[in-house]
Amino acid sequence: MITVVAGVLRDEAGRVLLAQRLPSKHLAGTWEFPGGKCEPGESAEDALARELAEELGIEVGSSSPLLGLTHHYPEKSVRLLLHELVDWRGEPRGCEGQPLRWVSVKGMVDLPMPAADRPIVRVLDLDPRYAITPDPDRVGGIEGLINAWQQSLAAGFRLLQLRAHSLKPTVLAEIAPRLGEMARQYGARWLLNGPAELAQAAGADGLHLRHADLLKQDQRPVPDNMLLAASCHDRESLQLAAALNADFVCLSPVRTTPSHSQADPLGWSGFAGLCADSALPVVALGGVSPGDLGTARQHGAWGVAGISAFGCV
Length: 313
Prior knowledge:
- By secondary structure, the chain is α/β, with parallel strands linked by helices.
- It has two domains: 2-118, Nucleoside Triphosphate Pyrophosphohydrolase; 129-310, Aldolase class I (TIM Barrel, Alpha-Beta Barrel), CATH 3.20.20.
- It is 27% helix and 27% strand.
- It has helices at 44-56, 118-123, 142-154, 169-185, 196-201, 211-214, 235-243, 267-275, 293-298; strands at 2-8, 16-20, 31-32, 35-37, 59-72, 77-89, 100-103, 129-132, 159-163, 189-193, 206-209, 227-232, 248-251, 282-285, 303-306.
- An eight-stranded parallel barrel has the order 8-9-10-11-12-13-14-15.
- The model has no long low-confidence stretch (mean pLDDT 94).
């Protein structure tokens, strides 16, 4: 296992800096987030500062963890730690002769990139705070569900999951497009936790699979232009989600929650251990709040998710 740390540098237009791998290197010609290997005993922050000084000629002021994932190439396995640069000094240049390019997140889709980097591109412009709706039975029915959705949007969350299993499919089919239109007015993305065909018919940005539904899948249930997320509780379900080419996973429970009081919590240590095996960006779920985003990222996560703490009450 090789540990690699890479940095996300953004310009004033929000574009991200990519570097092209030289002909002499593994995966030559592909475009990647700049960075390199961590030396034995070297922290990710120190390795990133050293690598970017050597590769780009810049001095890193500060950075913060963005996500971690593990990818197994035929010839080696890579643990990739991605950090967001908060500030740096100097103008990036290809000090090793490598071409550089500032690219929009959408533009990355058309570039050849290492397989380990591909899942990152899918979440790079998403809100890492994933707000999940409460069941309508808990909030007074459909009107309560609509109010919860509105509250979450008004609170600033821009990635939402419509989860309403107590509703009849016909009722859900009627309400989902209405909630989707509300989300679009706020510039938010939303996923339906329900049938794949309904997610597509309702115009959802994606589909979220429950753990039980994930275990039944043998292929990706929605097209690539839609997001696919899944609920995972163990290493096996993380591997299955990756095999389906999901875009991110929710790993739970981090802490004990009233709704799942019988489930054994992973704790941050157990969460980090499973997260380190994931080939996909991981969202921490179960007793966490938006304020836990920094802690979650210190343990390898990309985001955090929940219901009541995310305005959905």
